[in-house]
Amino acid sequence: MYGQFFLLFALILVGYYCNKKGWLNRETNKNMSSMVMHVTIPAMLITTISSIEVDDRILRGFLLMAAAQIAAMVGFGYLVRLYARFRKVDSRLHPMLDITTGSINTGFIGLPVTLIFFGSEGVLYMSAGILSLNLYLCIYGVCIIEDKKISGLQDWGKTAKKVLLNPNCTSVIIGMVLAVTGAIHWIPTVLIDFLKKLGDLATPLSLIYIGALAGSSGMTALFKEKQALEFSILKMIGMPLLAVIALFFVPAGTMAKSIFLLSMALPSAIVVPMMVEQYGYGEKMSSDIVLWTTFISMLTMPACVWLAGTLYT
Questions:
Q1: 229 lies in a domain?
Q2: Contact (CB, 8 A) for 283 and 277
Q3: CB 229 within 8 A of CB 294
Q4: How many domains does the chain have?
Q5: Domain containing 292: what range?
Q6: What are the φ/ψ torsions at residue 191 (nearest 5 degrees)?
Q7: At what angle do helices 2-20 and 283-311 cross, to 10 degrees?
């Protein structure tokens, strides 16, 4: 297990080193993230999910995972909002703290780590988090940040369109359709091999991107952001702890429980600061929390992978 985590850390350090050498500046890294999200991760999702024999057990686990992750993100964000009131944090920051600490980075970190430690079936369960994250951000997140409610068929139609047109959500749906119908066997082998080669790039590029992002953040300045660190520690300890307690009462399979616990140890979603900048207040602190939780996840992820192996096998 620890050898695999060395691989993760090493790839992140490669990204950090490349940024410091000027080979991966902020603009280049931004373009690489777009390539990962729109090309390599969708390819990995299609080929990985379509290769699984999906039965009723797996399908129920997938739907349960999506629902559980939405509930966890909404519930934990609300708890953090209560904690922010207790700590007398500026009320303008409460919506940002809600969705930043509640969100989980299933794409850039969750999928690569799951593929390494839990294989194809694990990726299927973690991919449910991609659907749940997009639903969470497009419905709950926007409502919280903009302080408005979605009402009427037109608003719901726009939200559904936004979720379904997300390339990762589309890839999950395509992969599930190919797996359930068996249509994957009708796809030319050369096309499948091409998509697999693209998908193989998802893990290294995702982790190199995270490292380069850390390199461009200014570590000295980040250590001065004590409030962001406080809420990051709260998220990275609180979410896995509550997950362990909740899973004692959930009648799910061992794989589903393991992936859910791992998902609760993931850092905040990278897209949230961009949402906050566009719709709300506190973009700088949101970015700091994303970076801090990413660093802390290097400790929480190995712990949760080990704990899942101890509790659920």
A1: yes
A2: yes
A3: no
A4: 1
A5: 29-39+52-168+217-311
A6: -70, -40
A7: 160
133 with 108: CB under 8 angstroms?
no
Query: What residues contact residue 23 under an 8 Å CB cut-off, 6+ apart?
Result: none
Give the separation between CA 178 and CA 171, rounded to whole angstroms. 10
Distance between start and end Cα atoms, the chain = 15
Long-range contacts of 113-118 (CB under 8 A, 24+ apart): 113/8, 113/262, 113/301, 113/305, 114/259, 114/262, 115/44, 115/48, 115/203, 116/4, 116/7, 116/8, 116/203, 117/1, 117/4, 117/262, 117/305, 118/255, 118/258, 118/259, 118/262
E strand or H helix that includes residue 280: none
Residue 190 lies in a domain: no
CB-CB neighbours of 91 under 10 Å = 11
Question: What confidence tens digit (pLDDT) does each residue in 28-81 have?
Answer: 888 888 888 788 888 988 888 888 877 788 888 888 888 999 999 999 999 999
Amino acid present at 43: A
Residue 21 lies in a domain: no
Q: Which two tokens stand for residue 56?
A: 């009723």
The answer to whether 126 touches 261, Cβ cutoff 8 Å, is: no
Q: What is the pLDDT of residues 158-187, one digit of tens each?
A: 656 666 667 777 888 888 888 888 888 888
